[in-house]
Amino acid sequence: MLVEVWSDVVCPWCYVGKRRFEAALSRFAHRDQVEVRWRSFQLDPTTVSATARAAGPSDDHARVLAAKFGMPLPQAVSMLEELSATAAAEGLDFHPEVQVPANTLDAHRVLHLAAERGVQGAVKERLLLAHFTQGEALGDAETLVRLAAEAGLDPDEVRTVLAGDRYADAVHADVAEASALGARGVPFFVVDRRYGVAGAQPAEQFLAVLEQAWAERVPTVLVPAGGTADACGPDGCAI
Question: pTM, whole model, 2 decimals?
Answer without folding.
Answer: 0.89
